[in-house]
Structure formats: structure tokens, C-alpha cells
Amino acid sequence: MSWGWTSNPEPARSEAREQGVPVEDIEREVGRVQAGLAASGYIADEDLSTTLLLAEMLQRPLLLEGDAGVGKTSIAKALSDAYDCPLIRLQCYEGLDVNTAVYEWNYQRQLLAVKLMETGPGGDARAREAEIFSPEFLLPRPLLRAIQEPEPCVLLIDEIDRADEEFEAFLLEVLSDFQISIPELGTIPAQSIPRVILTSNGTRDLSDALRRRCLYFFVDFPSFEKECAIVRAKVPGIDERLIDQIVAFVQGLRKLELKKPPGVAETLDWAAALTGLSVSVLSDQPEVVLRTLGCLLKTREDRGQVTREVASRLAAGAR
Fold it and tell me: Which bin fits 123, alpha (ψ -120 to 50), beta or left (φ > 0)?
């Protein structure tokens, strides 16, 4: 039996709810989650894999919280690839409203239809209004698109902490019932329950109601061994001697009081840049290290803090 990592998990979900699952089966399924993510290019530990498995079993949204750059969005992308299903992304920002997130009417087509009706034979006004506000003129946005998918998709609600509290409250209602009410059409139920991933960088506190609705996992910066494995998997042709040096240097930077510590994406960019420049030992080419720090440091203050002496010390310690 495989109830955690299947292309059609619905029957297995019901079975998992109705009966207990032996520990060895859980461990086997967690391993399959890890293998599926690894095949999609994401290195996941057992804790994250277990949480993803539980979110699938319980059909619950998963809230991923952590600093920018730790790979939260990449988890959703890897899930989409592993399940071979669409990834629908809602990027949150201040002022996000229903028209952008859920649906809006195609006003241009509606106006054109009204013009055509005016030149045609008369008819009942209510019938005309019903024709104008029909699904034909509806433009589905990410939330509506996700529940209209015939098979479960991955719905990524990215950086929910950047949205207003009012939108967060609306989102909670959608995630609770997986249906959307449109005044002109009525209630539209979900054709499938999407696999929902929410991410937060912690720029504001999320409501207790939203946190209770979701499973939770804090995504931290990877360990030395894990980040080395990520670089090895993501940067083809990189010198093995260079991997440890790059990761040690970057993790040394993260210990400094930087405004924006480099994330995993910055590590990969720098690894690709150094590989392209044929660097094999960081301490042997200090000028190249200094000139390429723009791959890692993204503010003027951080760049000014990493002086030649600091960079040389980190490079020497990375040997």
C-alpha cells in the first residue's frame, strides 16, 4: 500500500483515515517522499518529508515559515514536479484583492455583448443580465483556477505575510470550505482539493486562525552537509574540492550581522559563477572572490561590511 506519494491519492487517503498505519509503512512512505523530492531536485530531510506526507493524508494546507532564501518556494515546485500536476501560484503583496486572487469579470467582452444585444431584438432584461454574468465571461484567478482543476494541483500562496489581514481572513474562509461564492453565479464547489502550500518570511504575525487551519514547518538554512549536497546536485561540473569551500564561506557569512544573509539560491549562483571562472581554491584567488560577492550580498550595507580582510579570513577558513 502506498498512501503518501501516489498519482491518485484519494482512495488511499480514505483508507489511511479509517485504519491505523504501521510505523514501518510510515517510514517507507517518508522515504518515498524524500525520493520523489530528490528526483525533482529538492533535498529534503525526514522531518519535512513527514510533514508533507501528513499534509497529503489529512488534506490540510501546509504553512512553511522561514527566512527569505531558504527554499520554501522550491518545495512547492518540487511537489508539483513529483506529483506531475500543475503548479498554480498566488504571489501575495500589500493591497492584494479578490479580483486579483480569485476572479474578475471580463468587462470588455461584457460591454461588447451588451452592444450586440442593443442592436438585436428586444428581450427580457433579467435574461440579458444572466447571459452577461455567465461563466463564459468569468476570468478565473489563482484561487478559483486551483479548485476548478479536475485533478489535485499544487496551490502555492507565496509570502502570505505580505498580504493584508483582511485578505488573510478571506483566504481562511476559502481554505476551510474549498468553495468560492460569486454573487452573480452562486457557490462554486471544488472539483478537486488542491495541495496548498503557504509561505511566510515572518515580516508580520499571521493570525492564530490561519495557523490553526494549517500544518506548520519551519524551514531553516540547511546544514553544511545538506547544502553541499544541494550544490552538488544543482551545479553540474563543479569541482568537488570547491563545494566544501563555497558552503563554508557562505555559512560563515550568515554568522555575520548582515541585513540580508545569503540564501541557498545565492550559494548556487556563486558556485556557478566560480565554476565558470575556473576557480578551484578560494584563498588562492582573493580578487575573484571579492569581485563576485555580488552573487551573495544584495545590499550596499552588507557589501561594505564584508571587507577584503573579512573575505580573506572566511576564504582561509574554508580551506
Answer: beta
